[in-house]
Amino acid sequence: MNGYKVKIENLKSEDSYVEITVSVTGENPLYYPRISACFYTDDDNRILPMDLKSCDGNTAVAIGIFDIPSLFYSRKKAPEKIGVKFLFSDGKADNVMLAPEKEVVIPSKHRNMLFRFFKSSKREKTKILFSGIMSLLFLPYRHLKVQPNKVTFLTNRSERLTGNIKAVFFEMTKIPGIEINVLCKKGGVKSNIPNLFKFFRLYATSRVVFVDDYYHFLSYLKKKDDVTLIQLWHACGAFKTFGFSRLGRDSYLRQSSPNHRQYDYVVVSSKDVIPYYAEGFGVAMEKVIALGSPRCDMLENESYKKHFRKKFYRENPSLADKKILLFAPTFRGGGMGSCHYPIERFEVDRLLSSLDEEWVIVVKMHPYLSERPAYSEKYADRVFDFSTQYDINDLLFVTDLMVTDYSSVIFEASIVNVPMLFFAFDLNEYSRDRDFYCNFSSFVPGKIVLSTDEMINAIKNKDYRQELIAPFKDRFFGSNTGHATENVVNFTKELLK
């Protein structure tokens, strides 16, 4: 029906591991195949990525080695039966679930915790020991009653609520009879130790708990059954692989890791990205719900848009009659403290010397980056660095053209219908090192340029491929734009009932 056939080429079970080799054949040549294994029982499922070994014409072959006892989170006994299907995409809009002609049953295994400890790496042993200490400290709090009207917001991304979690918080404060608590502290475990016992009390007594990133303490404790944990991930859409989708690429991550796997629900922007978030977080697909991206609601608020534009031009009167090119690239490398951007590739002088005087460049570098574009003094009045000023979503309201590369700001820009150019001069290297869920070239809602000359020609000819934006927005937001916060709050109210 879907034009694809899957075949198990090899299945080998040894100790607690199973090795699967699978081929997928399409009716047409495959373009950007991606194959994941979907293991399932009567009441659970989990998607895990496989390594693509070859793609010859219309057939792709992938292999995966899986640790059976750690497939499903915290099961007291091994499931009686584990089946497997395969999630396939060819870099386009749709994912398809493919079942072998003959049902495949994976031998079920259960591993002793002591055995797991001795087989673990030094890093994992440390985490297991720390989890034991945390569980002992948390034990008195487990006996505290969950308050049916209590909601808690946790974040370690910032000292204050931002983005999705901020939008939901403010809307929740309008509901009478709900006790709302907030715990914000930027940083990892060490930074948050002073708040440990406050966290214990809130986590043990709240009916609903919201997080917006990886919140370290959660992975060291087993959640109480009557507490509902909801992930309001800080980004929207799905673009670059993350979490368990990067197994084999990030050496510190293991299939058995408890990170993220206790979420009761994960809120995402649209149905299209459900399989990606399920895989990335290691949760069942049924736990991923498409309610929208709350922080994006403001992008469709005309009153707020007018307010920001008025404020922006009052603070920057010289830009009132200019065309703004927003330069907003992401970083290369490992992340905060270990990343960079090859800033010499963005040639400001050549760009501005070739464009009409009405064009100016507004720079908004990623928060992790310290690099800034270089330019001659003669262009000083046409370059504005707002890297530490204004929210990038707000800047979209005054942008005539955005030049980016692999930044996820493209999702927000699609809501505002901002024309985009993708300055992807290192596409092959970035794709190899970072990896995408979809083929970059057919995914992005704009024209890809590989050099300054191509960028200049595209701007002069207004060749932005802007017709790609509307279907892109529809795919990643659907009818949720402008209503996501309301959707999440209504969903939460039902949980509180």
Task: Tell me the helix content.
Answer: 25-40%
The number of helices is: 15
Strand content: 15-25%
Low-pLDDT regions = none
The tally of strands reads 23
Structural class call reads: alpha/beta
The largest beta-sheet arranges its strands as: 11-10-12-13-14-15
Distance between the termini: 42 Å
Anisotropy-based shape: globular
Describe this structure in words.
- The chain has 15 helices and 23 strands.
- The chain has helices at 113-119, 122-142, 163-172, 189-192, 196-205, 274-281, 302-315, 348-354, 392-395, 409-416, 427-434, 440-443, 452-460, 469-477, 484-496, and strands spanning 4-14, 17-26, 34-40, 45-49, 51-56, 59-67, 82-89, 96-98, 105-106, 147-155, 179-184, 206-211, 228-231, 265-268, 288-290, 323-327, 332-333, 339-340, 359-363, 383-385, 401-404, 420-423, 447-449.
- It is globular, with a radius of gyration of 24 Å.
- The two termini are 42 Å apart.
